[in-house]
Design brief:
CATH architecture: Orthogonal Bundle
GO molecular function, one term: DNA-binding transcription factor activity
Number of domains: 1
Number of strands: 3
Mean pLDDT: 91
Pfam families: HTH_5 (PF01022)
CATH superfamily: Winged helix-like DNA-binding domain superfamily/Winged helix DNA-binding domain
CATH topology: Arc Repressor Mutant, subunit A
Helix content: 40-55%
Largest sheet: 3 strands, antiparallel
Keywords: DNA-binding, Transcription, Transcription regulation
Low-confidence stretches: none
């Protein structure tokens, strides 16, 4: 098996590096790493809906202390880079870390940098 078959490509890595170049975005990822410890229980995320660990955007907004538009922009950058996943459940939007992308990025760094 090719060791690099599960690697992200250089272009994807650049997008991830850009996303990680802001301390607030890094903080969001750190908070989402342990959502149960950093956020109140998420009433609308039901395990059967397949989005365990998802946190409502309003809760993320409250924690980061930035305007709603800036918080949404930061989450959009993290989503575009692949570091987070998003799901709408009813009228709420939830985000969680994309652990698969994070593992691929970790492997990319260890093999290429």
């Amino acid at each position: 098996m090719n060791r690099e078959s599960n690697l992200i490509n250089d272009e994807q890595a650049v997008e991830i590096f850009k996303a990680l170049s802001n301390q607030i975005r890094v903080n969001i990822l750190l908070m989402l790493k342990e959502p149960d410890n950093n956020f109140s229980p998420q009433a609308h995320v039901i395990k059967e809906k397949g989005f365990d660990g998802g946190v409502c955007v309003s809760d993320i907004h409250s924690k980061v202390g930035l305007s709603q538009s800036t918080t949404s922009q930061y989450l959009s950058i993290l989503l575009q880079s692949g570091l987070v996943e998003m799901k709408r459940i009813g009228q709420w939007t939830y985000y969680r870390r994309n652990e698969e992308t994070i593992k691929q990025f970790e492997k990319y760094i260890s093999l290429k940098i």
